[in-house]
Amino acid sequence: MMQALIEILHREQCSLVVRHDGEVSTYGKPGVRDLEHLLKHQPAVLKGALVADKVVGKAAAALMVVGGVAQVYAEVLSEKAVPFLKKAQIPYTYGTLVNAIEEGAGRCPLEAITAPASTPKQAVELLFAHFRQMQARRHLSP
Question: Which DSSP symbol is given to 69?
Fold first, then answer.
């Protein structure tokens, strides 16, 4: 079952594939935006879902755990994500395991934002607060 999602992830050049109740959906927004949207607006889609994702760091893992996904495949998995998945007893596989997710010349901003969190719920709260601040800044910009 998961192998089919992995094949779709590669073939469709998307960033996220979710299988829930036999229905498969693909997504392509950058970072964790699709997971954030699903958790906020369609949480039932994540509950018990199989998920294949290009990159799973601590932020993505937190969203998946809080969303109640059943199984995860990550093309690239951060070691920072593993404790959340293990503690939630979510089976996971990966293509490549890395110490941390990096973007450009440094650490991924979402890894930095979620670094202080010791639980998935705390990490999601930090992420949502960050996204709210970004949204507010956009509305204030001319």
Answer: -
Tokens of 24: 């498969």
| CA-based nearest residue to 60, from 44, 45, 41, 82 | 82
* Sign of the alpha-carbon torsion through 115, 119, 122, 126: positive
Under the phi-then-psi rule, with left for phi > 0, alpha for psi from -120 to 50, and beta for the rest, what region is 89? left
Q: Report the predicted TM-score, pTM, of the whole model to 2 decimal places.
A: 0.94
Separation between Cα atoms, residue 79 and residue 108, nearest integer Å: 13
> pLDDT tens-digit profile of 64-123?
999 999 999 999 999 999 999 999 999 999 999 999 888 776 778 898 899 999 999 999
Q: Are 59 and 9 in contact (CB under 8 A)?
A: no
User: 113 is written with which tokens?
Assistant: 């934002």
